[in-house]
Structure formats: C-alpha cells, structure tokens
Amino acid sequence: MTTADLKCNSHTATLLYSLMALMKTVELFAKEKPVVQREQQRHQYTSLEYLLAKAIAEIPLDTVFAAVFTTTLKHLCGLRIGWRALTGTFTLMTVAGASLGFAIGALVRLKCQFNNILKPFGPDFFNVYPCFPQRVQLAMWR
Amino acid sequence: MARIKKRLQDHDEACELRDNEAVVLVRLDLPMKHPPQRKIHHTITAQEESAKNEYNDDHPDDKYFQHSTTSAVSRRRSVLFSWDRQIIATTTTGCSSAKKKEDKVIPLSPSIRHKEVQRMKMTRPPHQLASESFVLALGSSSSSSLQRRSLSSWEPIFQNKKLKKRKQEKILKESTTKGLTKKKKKGKTCATSTSVHRHFFICLVIVISLMAFFPVQARPLLGISSWPSSPSSSATNTKNVTTTPSGIYWTNLSVQTADGSYLLNKCHGHVQNGHICGVLGPSGAGKSTTLSAIAGGGAISTSSPNSSRRRSGLQIQGHVQCYDSDKKSKEHLRMGGGKVAWLQQQDSFFHMLTVQETLQFAAFLELPNSSKKQRQQTVLSLMESLGLAKLAPRKVEGLSGGEKRRLSLALELLSSPSLFIGDEPTSGLDSTMSAKVVRLIQKSVQERNIPAILSLHQPRSSIFKMLDSCLVLAPGGHVVYMGKAKDAVEYFTQLGYGCPVETNPAEFLLDLVSVDSEDPVMAREDEKRISHLATAFLEHQQSSQEEVDLDLLLEKAVSLDATDATKSLSTFPKRRQRPVSLFRPIQRFGRLLLRSWRQNIRNHRVNMYRLLASGGTAYLFTNIFRSIKKGVFTSKSVADRVALLSFSVINMRYVYDNEQNWILLVLRA
C-alpha cells in the first residue's frame, strides 16, 4: 500500500467535503442581501453581528454531516485513526470551506452575478486548480 | 332582622321573604376603626327567620356580612348597607342554576349615597376613594364578593321610577309645607348635582387612566383607534386641515443631475394624513426619484431652506416637512430612521421563517423600547388588521404574491411610521390583487392617520378611484398635475384635453404624458403637449399660491403654539417607555443566530441532499481505498477516479438551485 495513494485519497476527500460547504454558503449573502440591507439601513444591527451569527449557525450542521461522512468511512474502511480526530479534521475543513464561501459571497454582490460568473467557472477552478495541481503536472511530465 | 325587614318593607311593599330565600347582608367595607376583613356572619333563610327574628343593632362584630348559598336556597336577596346600616340598594337573584337570574332592585335615597361618598372621602385615602366611589356610582358595593357579580344587578339608585316619583312628591310636599326658600332649594340641587359631577369626573379620570396604560398597538384590538382628541377618520382630517396642517408638504422640490439637467422640476405638493397620493407617469418619468426626494428631502431642509446635498451625483433641493395634527408637531423625515415606511417593488424575506417569526423578529428590532408582551400584541394586531392571522404558522416560501405583499406591508408598518411610500406596490400582481393591496394600504394609512404616496405604473380605474390625490409626471421630470384625483380629468378638460367616454382616467392621464419614441413626428407633438401642460400647471400653481401660503402660515402658527399644546397634553399620563436593556446586544445577537439557524435547519431539501452526499461519498471512497493494494502503484488511477468523483459530487451541489433537475425529482419522489 503506498502512502501517497492514501494521502491523495484522504486529501481529496477533505477538500471535496470542504468544497461542498463552500458551495452552500457562497450564495447566501447574495440571497439575503435585500433583507439585510433593509435592516442595516435602519441601523438595527452591525455587519459583524450578522456575519458571526451566520458563521456560527453553520457549524452544527457542518459537524453533523462531517460526522456522518467520517463514521461511514471509518466503519467501512477500518481506518486506524481515531473517530474524534477524523471528525474534528473534517469539521474544521468544512467550517473553513464555509468561511471561504462567505468570503467569496461577500465579493459577489448579487445573486445574478453569482449565476452568471461564478457558476460556470467555479467547479472547474475548484476541482482542477486546488485539488490536483501536482497530479496535472505529473501527468504532463509523464 | 325584624328591623331590616321593616326597612325593606318601607321601600318596597312586596318585600317579603319567601320560602327558600336567603337574605344576604352586605355592608360597605369602611374600616374607620376596623381593618377590612371577610367574615360570614349571617345567612338567614326564611326557615331560620323564626329562630333569628331579632337582629341586634349593637352587635359588636357586625362589620361585614357576606352570603353563603346552600342547596336549599333558591333565591338570594342581597342587601347593601352603608357603614351605619343605611340600606343603599338591594337585589334579588335566583340561586338555582336551572332558574334564570331575576334581578329586582330596590333603590334608596340618593342622599344616602351622597352621604356615603362624603363619609368615604373623610376616611379613605384618595386612590381608594376614587375606585370605591366609582364602584358605588355604578351601583355596586366595595365588597369583593359582590364585585365579582355582574354590576348590572346593582343598578343606580335613580333608575327606580316609583321611588323617583315618591321622592319628587316628597320634595314637593316638603317645599310646600315647610316653605323652603329658593336659596335652600338651589343649595340642595347644587349639592346633588355636584356629587353627580364628581362621580362623573372620577369615572372619567379612571377611564382615561385605564386607556393610558393600554399600549397604542393594543388599541386596535380593543376597538380603540386613537384618542378621542385625535380622530383618525378622513372626515375629521378635513376638519383639522382648516385649523392645523396634517400630512406631508413639499415645496420647491427638485432633483438635478450633476450636469444640471432636471430629473424632477420644481414642484409643490401636499398629502393629508390618511390620504393616498398616486404618482403616475410613464417609465423613466422620475417616479422613483420623486419618491426618494420626498422620503429623504426632509433631512435636506433641516439645515437651511435653500441648502442642497449631493447624493450619488444627484442634487436635491427644497423643503419636505411632515405635520402631525394629533401631536401638533412637525418633523423632518429621514430615510432609515423608521419614520418612513418604504414598500419595495420586490418582496424579500428569509424564506424558511414563518410569517409570525418574521414579524416577531422585525418587531424585536424595530421596537427596542417595548416589552415582549407589547411586541406580541403589536404583531398580533397587525396580523389581524392585514389578514395575516391565518397565515401565521406558514413558511414565507409557500406564500402567494399577494400574501407576500401583505407581509411586506406589515413589516413596514411595524415601526409606526409618519409616512408610507410604495414604489410600485402593485407590480407583479394581477389587477384584482392590485386593487386589494391598494385598498389594504388605504385602510392601514387611515387607521394610522399617516399620508401615503404610491407610484403606480398602470393603475386600473378602481385603483384610481381610491386615490385622494395624484401627481402626474411626464418624461424629463415635468410635473403636469398635482391635486385631487377626482379633479384631474376636469382640469385637463379645461386645458382642451378631454377624457374620452368610458376610458380609464389613469390611462388617459398616462397617454397625455407619454412620448411616442418610434415616430419622431408624433414624438415632437407629444413633447409640445407636455411642455404646454407643464407650463399651464406651473401657472395654475402660481395662481393658487394663496392657498399654499395660507397653509404655510397655518403651519407657522401651529409650530408657535406647539409648546402650549405640549403643555396642555402633559397633564395626561405619558406612555411608559421602557429603557433599552443593557443585554440588548446579546439578545440581538441571539435572535440573529436563531434566525440563521432556523434558515439552515429548515432547509430540508439541501440538508437531505448533503446527508445523502455524505453517506454516498463515504461509500465511494471506501471502494477506492479497498482497491489500493501493496506493491501496486495506483496513484494515477486513484487520481483519475477521485477527479471523476469530485466533478460529479460538486456538480451535484447545484441540484437544489435547479428544480427541474432529475436528481431532485428522484429525491423528492
């Protein structure tokens, strides 16, 4: 068993999972913008409060789905790593992905912009560039 | 007992105890020496009458008598005594549940009642005196047990005609026999009239104080629209206009671009409280710009009359002032201060929240000085008034277009604004729903006694009839008409543009100010007509300047009298304003967190997908892991497989956006 293969596999799983969270949160701001803008116009709360509330509200669900994934994986594969460590890692990566989604969502002002710009190029960018740069290079060298 | 019976018989010949009848002796609780206490001393039935046929007047413990019903008692005769055992009133009530209540009132002398009040006045603290004399005035006793009964059973003393007649006869006899002088008569009548006045005044004070403690938002629930001194009906508004200005006034309002061209030419206008003004005009005429200028123009005029401010390249000039005839005050409106309700074209909500949750959250943010109960009452009354009560538990995403409009309207009206603005509130709705929405807006602004300005793109005739006034705008920011909606057609007829028969007046007005962009010859004619109409209206406004000046003079007079008005109003108890809690930021964050959490957890479609994706991906990865064996270099194949999986899974992420996707249909099935 080559460790490179395992690493590649586990890395891919982690990245894939975090990207799922990212894609969920990336358009949240664009969707909720009209409501939040109306409330912000009346100085009802600060942007920081809203952002923190959104981010914290994502954590429990991300943890649950990460736990489902890791439990299934550990049970079927018989991984030697502890369940807590595995779930913790995946949760962390999921939350990081969600945060990245918020960051990108903040840059995209409207939902239509998201649909027009980010959707067509997003998957290709996220799949090819962050996940497999080395693999692409290896394939090219060979 | 015999003495009481004798007294009762003195006042009513038919007052004889029957079988199974209890006499309940109730004495007014006047703790001159003894504190108020509840003691059941005597319940005397007819059977016991023979045994207890004597009633000792000098009994030391005869402070208080209260009834106790037994199964044998079918009728109860309650006798209300004053502290010195004067009978004030009696009532007879059937005790059996099978029998109907039979009330018989034997009223006694009004002077006793007056005496009683005088005595209470001597012995009681003022706050107790007020409440007890109020109860007494209604014909009840101060006994708590009797207060629980219906007050109608203790009728006022004056209502017995027989006794009234007797009393009048007695007075006449006394006046003739004793030869009372007119002065004495006057004194007596004055005494009784003053007592009546006093009771009336006390009642009035109690009623007013009770009303003051009810929150304003709860008044619609109680059927109280406003204070008696502040009528909200349109009829009274018209009356108010002649004395105090009400509604929104804008003078010399104009909007210019950076290059100096006008988006809105100088215009004056006025919309009374409770009235609706429709802003009509073709697309690009500057309807939204006008609304923005009216809504935000108040802040401009605060600094100086001719001041101006550049906002996003636009220069807005003029005065905008909002007058409240009830408060006799004026205020400069500012967007974002909660004083301007702006109904947007599109409805935007958190779709996973219910209608009630949406309103409650908005109420929490909009009304920081209100208690939780007050907020709940406000939300409930608003939902009832806008017909949202049945939709309270439903999610926003399941509402129809009209229902969403109503919810948007409710959100805007939560903060009790001074001005309502609707930017094409009927867009996207069918004609029936549009009429309903405008009618709802009309009802809401009349209830709240605030002006409303609505920009309408293509109003149907029924909507046009609902408008009290209209502002007709032509391309280039020309104001062609501002005035009563019903006079608009007549005004244009005088100018030589008659409305064809059986034509919607709104359509006629829009045709007048539209420019044909396809035909240049027609376009020139249209522009000529518009410039003619604009000039004519300018002259018309200048000729009717006196009315505007009169209004402005009235405004100044009222603003000068505003201090006196506030002084006179200050005698009424002000509504208690709760101070904002120190923990408000924490509470607010908690509410925001709760809203976000509900938005996440209730999105069942996405959650279900993520759950399936988690399990499915784990299963696929397991298969890949199993295929990795010792000594076999499978890096390339792994990379290929993982790449394929990644693409498929991430692309599946878009499923929930596209409802026509087959995967979603499978998941739904």
Please give a structural write-up.
The complex is a heterodimer of chains A (142) and B (669). Chain A has 142 residues and is mostly helical. Chain A has one domain. Chain A has helices at residues 3-25, 28-41, 47-77, 83-107, 111-131, 133-141. Chain A is elongated and about 55 Å long. The two termini of chain A are 22 Å apart. Chain B has helices at residues 2-11, 46-49, 110-123, 126-137, 144-147, 161-178, 182-213, 219-222, 234-243, 287-303, 355-366, 372-385, 401-413, 431-448, 461-466, 488-494, 505-512, 520-543, 545-569, 584-601, 604-627, 635-652, 662-668; strands spanning 21-27, 43-45, 75-81, 87-94, 247-256, 262-271, 276-280, 308-311, 314-324, 329-331, 340-343, 419-423, 452-456, 469-474, 478-484. In chain B, helix 11 (355-366) packs across helix 12 (372-385) and helix 13 (401-413) runs parallel beside helix 14 (431-448). Chain B is flat. About 28% of the residues of chain B have low confidence. At the A-B interface, helix 1, helix 2, helix 3, helix 5 and helix 6 of A face helix 20, helix 21 and helix 22 of B.
List the helices and strands and how they pair.
The complex is a heterodimer of chains A (142) and B (669).
Chain A: H1 3-25, H2 28-41, H3 47-77, H4 83-107, H5 111-131, H6 133-141
Chain B: H1 2-11, E1 21-27, E2 43-45, H2 46-49, E3 75-81, E4 87-94, H3 110-123, H4 126-137, H5 144-147, H6 161-178, H7 182-213, H8 219-222, H9 234-243, E5 247-256, E6 262-271, E7 276-280, H10 287-303, E8 308-311, E9 314-324, E10 329-331, E11 340-343, H11 355-366, H12 372-385, H13 401-413, E12 419-423, H14 431-448, E13 452-456, H15 461-466, E14 469-474, E15 478-484, H16 488-494, H17 505-512, H18 520-543, H19 545-569, H20 584-601, H21 604-627, H22 635-652, H23 662-668
Parallel strand pairs in B: 1-3, 7-13, 7-14, 11-12, 12-13
Antiparallel strand pairs in B: 1-2, 3-4, 5-6, 5-9, 8-9, 9-10, 14-15
Helix pairs in contact in B: 3-4, 4-7, 11-12, 13-14, 21-22
